[in-house]
Amino acid sequence: QALRLLHQTKRSTMGDDEANYAYNEDANMSFVCPSWAPVLGYSGIVASVVFANLGGAYGTAKAGLGLMAMGIHSPDLIMRNIIPVVMAGVLGIYGLIVAVILNGKFSVPEASGMPTYSQYNGFAHLAAGLCCGLCSLASGISIGIAADAGTRAVGAQSAMDASWKKMGFTGDSGGQVDSSGDALFVGTILIQVFASNLGLYGLIAALIMTQTEYACSSN
């Protein structure tokens, strides 16, 4: 209110052209840096953390489900196949990194009460949060599904090898005896590596989108 009163006092001492220019300048400032702009930025922080952790939670749960199912028949392979759980847990860190960076980009209003956080920053930060969060969510879903199927297949292959050996087959027998599930294990890990890259791509894009800023000032 004090700022508005000051502008009205200035306009009363100006000519018509100067008063119109001052009015348009004030209107443009309120449009570029509205009071609701921080809502967009904080929504980006929420989206980044929530969606990234949803992806990490789903990936961890789904991978753990397959890991425990495999551990019933092949408990010696549990630690070897726990890599997908670690990959899924990293996704939550991506969201946390983006949230911390976005939080550091906020600017408080000036002493006069004029907002300095612009719509440009708000939409950029919202896009960055959604980019990282949704990419991490997709990555977590992909890791979880691939890990569930992959660990079960590795466990089944290991159990089959053990049964062939118990029956006295010591030759190659089509590769069932000596493979020990290595081929399946390597393939499963490669699938999960490429699935985890999806979250990394979202993190990189989010960091790029936070590099440019625009702030309002009364000076």
Short description:
This protein is mainly α. It is about 75% helix and about 0% strand.
List keywords for this structure.
rod-shaped, 0% strand, 6 helices, disordered N terminus, mainly alpha, 219 residues
Helix fraction bin: over 70%
The number of helical elements comes to: 6
How many DSSP E strands?
0
Largest sheet: none
3D structure, described in words:
The chain is rod-shaped and about 85 Å long. 74% of the residues lie in helices and 0% in strands. α4 (83-104) runs antiparallel to α5 (119-166). Mean pLDDT is 79; it is low at 1-11 and 14-25. By secondary structure, it is mainly α. The two termini are 18 Å apart. The chain has helices spanning 2-12, 16-32, 37-71, 83-104, 119-166, 182-209. It has six helices and no strands.
Question: Can you lay out the helices and strands and say which pair or pack?
Answer:
Layout: H1 2-12, H2 16-32, H3 37-71, H4 83-104, H5 119-166, H6 182-209
